[in-house]
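Curious: why these numbers?
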Amino acid sequence: MKAVFVDEFGGAEAMTVRDAEAGKPGSGELLIRHHAIGVNFIDVYHRTGLYPNPLPVTPGSEGAGEVLAVGPGVAGFKPGDRIVYQGAIGAYAQERVLPAARAVILPDGIDYETGAAIMLKGLTAYYLLFLTWPVRAGETILFHAAAGGMGLIACQWANSIGARVIGTAGSPEKVELAKANGCDEVINYSEEDFAERVSEFTGGKGVDVVYDGVGQATFEKSLDCLRPMGLMVSYGNATGPVSVPDLGILARKGSLFVTRPTGAHYFAEREALLTGAKALFAAVESGAIKPHIGQRFKLEEAADAHRALEGRKTVGSTILLP
């Protein structure tokens, strides 16, 4: 089978495709054949070494496929089962061995491509909206990169809860897409000062919570968007890592709270993973979330997918087709 490898950390060109053996599933493992693979910014971090792994490494943390074989000690899965997973690096391959604890049965009403497009991003949206800050009807949130794969899912979901959703996007086309997918107002950050616009939208009060996966470029100005004692949720760093050398800034800007969550902790226990997946699948099947796959690439085009993602040329979710 074919798989993508990173032999040395670097740019998109660091990924090469070559023949490999998936191997046999050991204790607690499944052998799966991918039908679709999700592409996420964390894959870039693994490729560049921002989040280092032993080399060579196969990127990718999300996929959907069928079970080919079941290792010893595995219960609840059998060959032929349709599964999805997130949080297990090694997805950029036609086949792979996967820890069974990371796999979830994919409902019949959700196809493989959708499953691969929503699992990591959808579960991230779940813990952000329901656990990190349990959003309530009537609250106002600011969600950066609202037209991205994460943004479209999260903004639709927040809207279905009854929150007022303010989004940011980087082009007129992305602004319109975000407006059509859960945002009440959308700010084109390439043309407008988003902090000033948030102040206008909220009558100077600020929002209850900011969700920011952009990172360095938006972090400090996002603090100015919060109401006193509001929460800044920094869950990614697409433009570079964030640092807060002077904690006093949080006091000066309104006794603010800041958190840096990760799904590795929220879904460390399988029961938490299953609870989140159940909520996600229900939201998709009810129509509260309508996944948008903006780009499809062949497995051999993984480098092109990364260039598009890093160049902010993508909308919605991006998947690889093996």
The domain at 2-119+266-321 is CATH 3.90.180.10 (Quinone Oxidoreductase; Chain A, domain 1). Residues 112-132 form the longest helix (21 residues). The chain has two domains: 2-119+266-321, 137-260. The chain has a mean pLDDT of 96.
